[in-house]
């Protein structure tokens, strides 16, 4: 048995490490490596399955804490204990055995604070002591980088600080979640909230990051719902010059039409009248735009959502897969820069990357630019770039469409470092009509430059075509028609799912306190690069928000919680940002985990004490009624008196207590049914044709659904 044990975060990561060496043996719990220069006696790679251990649940400390009672709050254990996750005991036992037999143990988990937590929590729970422990720190899973990492293992001191930071975060989130979720749930239930609508239960999940994130979305929705459009009036000029027509706008915007009319009358103009105008000035400037910065995870998530409507969670999962396939560098990065080391291999592969992207250009430069290459801006992880492992066409063809799109996006931003700037000529025309100046701006593309790396959206093409202006000269006379143009002020747009990432990063814009703004800037908003997509998934899973056609809306259940936490620190991005700032100090050895947890206990105790008053002051009756109404999908086709409701795992009649047993499944033949399809089925007895069913022989088919004479659901196939 080897005396070196490597602990990976998950089996796929262990497999990637093993591929850099010669494998001697494999089993369900480990991979054994043959002896080599790196490991003269061989090595064992074992793994977690994510978190092998987790914090104990309340009921494991005291039996009474297992039940939800207001009288037991706050729940504040003196010493927090870890326990093996119930479904992972066999793997933990194997890991413990290998740790006991090892002389050297290597933490090979992800290089972030949660990776440190996963390893250290597992290591401490095994009770193993007196072993040498080292840290593997790599940003790529390529063979060369893996070997370099194992030959240059890091001391464990930094890892232990990151573990302290992660543990402080984990325990504090436990305290907030356990206590305030129970407090708000139980007090809202006392107010009559049953959670019988919008696919939800009455349990309210409250969290340090998820609650302020939800409240930010709620704020935007409230702005939209309470927005009152107001008319405004502007002056538009339509001009005919010798070489073509163009339009311009005066810098006039008034709430009253009479004010604009009086201005025209003063200058002797009538709306719609053809008169003479003069080109007062023509200014042409050649401008250039540099290629975008290299991607961080957030910028890639935002771009992918805008371009392909991919959710942030799907982007992270897909990038993790590409990382495991050794095609991209570590994805959970908040950095837009690389160091000279990465730039060196990227420069050597420029031609190969061009062939992968099927583009061809002569590099404008092969020198490193500070816009992209700056080692002083790289702390733990550098920007997302392709690895030096250039895949063949077979590998590319085997990628999913999402993997191809995201890989090509990373390739394009990387190649942008070497491409020419986007060049265009901007023209500004000032046209004078009886002392009223009209301003026109347009541009003419001179060199597509780096933009040639991307397929231009059709909308962008149309906009650029429309922006081309005719050639005019200063002092040229033009035929002019001035009109009063009426417009309406518009509400803010609802968030798309991709915009939630930037919303969480830039929430400092909504804060007035200067100190809080600085803290939010320092920690880049709420959440971290690695957790933001998970937070969005959490508030979706809790049914606080819904995403339809990429537009995010707060559900009635989400509104109930936001009404209840309004005005508290739970609705404030500032609080979670201050927490994050102190957590980072713990990671740097400048803060105390115990002090942080004590402060959290004080915060939780205060909040629990205030919850009753907060909820009593909340006007939630209308929201409760709205939620109940939103869940009445259709009249029950069986009893006719009840209504069909979403019962979380199925659709059923509200009259079940009166004896109606009518139900409909959420999924049939592998296809999830929408609420609109259920409504149509109940009201009309039949749906439209539905695609995407899967037969027992794994073949896809399409059919309508109908209710038969016994009110049972059945397929209705098109007649041949």
TrEMBL record:
SMART domains: TOP1Ac (SM00437), TOP1Bc (SM00436), TOPRIM (SM00493)
Entries under SUPFAM superfamilies matching the protein: Prokaryotic type I DNA topoisomerase (SSF56712)
Superkingdom classification of source: Bacteria
Catalysed reaction, written as an equation: ATP-independent breakage of single-stranded DNA, followed by passage and rejoining
GO cellular component: cytoplasmic replication fork
Domain Topo IA-type catalytic, chain residue ranges per copy: 159-608
EC number: 5.6.2.1
Keyword Metal-binding: yes
Record-level GO BP terms: DNA recombination; DNA repair; DNA topological change
Pfam families: Topoisom_bac (PF01131), Toprim (PF01751), Toprim_Crpt (PF13342)
Keywords for this protein: DNA-binding, Isomerase, Magnesium, Metal-binding, Topoisomerase
A GO MF label: metal ion binding
PANTHER family to which the protein is assigned, alphabetical: DNA TOPOISOMERASE 3-ALPHA, PROKARYOTIC DNA TOPOISOMERASE
NCBIfam families associated with the record: topB (TIGR01056)
Family: Belongs to the type IA topoisomerase family.
Name of the protein: DNA topoisomerase
Organism (species): Alkalicoccus luteus
Lineage: Bacteria, Bacillati, Bacillota, Bacilli, Bacillales
């Amino acid at each position: 048995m080897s005396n070196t044990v490597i602990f990976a975060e998950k089996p796929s990561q262990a497999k990637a490490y093993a591929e850099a060496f010669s494998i001697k043996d494999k089993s369900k719990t480990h991979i054994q490596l043959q002896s080599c220069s790196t490991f003269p006696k061989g090595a064992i790679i074992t793994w977690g399955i994510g978190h092998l251990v987790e914090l104990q649940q309340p009921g494991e400390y005291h039996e009474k804490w297992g039940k939800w009672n207001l009288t037991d709050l706050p729940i504040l254990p003196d010493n927090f204990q870890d326990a093996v996750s119930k479904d992972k005991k066999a793997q933990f036992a194997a890991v413990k055995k290998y740790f006991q037999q090892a002389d050297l143990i290597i933490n090979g988990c992800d290089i972030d604070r949660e990776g440190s937590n996963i390893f250290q929590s597992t290591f401490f729970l095994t009770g193993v002591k007196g072993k040498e422990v080292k840290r593997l720190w790599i940003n790529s899973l390529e063979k060369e980088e893996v070997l370099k990492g194992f030959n240059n293992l890091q001391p464990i001191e930094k890892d232990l600080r990151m573990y302290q930071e992660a543990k402080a975060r984990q325990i504090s989130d436990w305290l907030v979640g356990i206590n305030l979720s129970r407090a708000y749930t139980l007090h809202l239930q006392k107010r009559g909230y049953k959670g019988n609508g919008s696919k939800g239960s009455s349990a309210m999940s409250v969290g340090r990051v998820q609650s302020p994130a939800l409240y930010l979305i709620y704020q935007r929705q409230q702005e939209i719902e309470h927005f009152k459009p107001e008319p405004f009036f502007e002056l538009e000029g339509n001009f005919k010059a010798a070489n073509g027509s163009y339009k311009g706008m005066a810098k006039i915007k008034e709430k009253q039409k009479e004010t604009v009319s009086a201005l025209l009358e003063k200058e002797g103009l009538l709306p719609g009248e053809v008169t003479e105008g003069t080109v007062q000035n023509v200014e042409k400037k050649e401008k250039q735009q540099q290629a975008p910065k290299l991607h961080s995870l957030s910028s890639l998530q935002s771009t992918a959502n805008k371009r392909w409507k991919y959710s942030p969670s799907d982007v992270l999962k897909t990038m993790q897969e590409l990382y495991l396939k050794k095609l991209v560098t570590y994805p959970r990065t908040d950095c837009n820069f690389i160091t000279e080391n990465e730039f060196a291999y990227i420069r050597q592969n420029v031609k190969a990357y061009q062939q992968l992207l099927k583009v061809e250009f002569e590099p404008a430069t092969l020198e490193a630019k500070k816009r992209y290459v700056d080692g002083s801006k790289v702390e733990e992880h550098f920007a997302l770039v392709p690895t030096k492992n250039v895949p063949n066409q077979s590998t590319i063809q085997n990628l999913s469409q999402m993997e191809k799109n995201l890989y090509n996006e990373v390739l394009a931003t990387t190649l942008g470092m070497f491409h020419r700037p986007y060049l265009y000529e901007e023209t500004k025309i000032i046209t004078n009509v009886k002392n009223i100046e009209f301003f026109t701006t347009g541009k003419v593309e001179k060199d597509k430059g780096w933009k040639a790396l991307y397929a231009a959206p059709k909308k962008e093409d149309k906009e650029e075509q429309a922006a081309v202006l005719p050639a005019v000269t200063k002092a040229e006379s033009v035929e002019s028609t001035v009109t009063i143009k009426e417009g309406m002020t518009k509400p803010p747009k609802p968030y798309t799912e991709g915009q939630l990432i930037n919303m969480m990063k830039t929430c400092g814009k909504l804060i007035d306190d200067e100190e809080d703004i600085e803290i939010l800037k320092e920690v880049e908003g709420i959440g971290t690069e690695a957790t933001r997509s998970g937070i969005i998934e959490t508030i979706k899973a809790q049914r606080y928000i819904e995403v339809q056609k990429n537009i995010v809306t707060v559900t009635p259940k989400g509104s109930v919680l936001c009404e209840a936490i309004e005005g508290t620190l739970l609705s404030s991005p500032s609080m979670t940002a201050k927490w994050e700032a102190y957590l980072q100090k713990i990671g740097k050895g400048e803060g105390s985990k115990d002090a942080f947890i004590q402060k959290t206990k004080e915060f939780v105790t205060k909040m629990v004490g205030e919850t009753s008053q907060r909820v009593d002051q909340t006007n939630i009756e209308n929201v409760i009624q709205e939620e109940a109404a939103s869940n009445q999908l259709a009249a029950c086709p069986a009893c006719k008196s009840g209504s069909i409701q979403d019962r979380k795992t199925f659709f059923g009649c509200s009259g079940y207590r009166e004896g109606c047993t009518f139900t409909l499944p959420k999924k049939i033949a592998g296809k999830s049914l929408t609420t609109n399809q259920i409504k149509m089925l109940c009201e009309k007895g039949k749906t439209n044709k539905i695609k995407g069913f899967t037969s027992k022989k794994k073949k896809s088919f399409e059919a309508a659904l109908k209710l038969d004479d016994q009110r049972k659901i059945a397929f209705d196939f098109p007649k041949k």
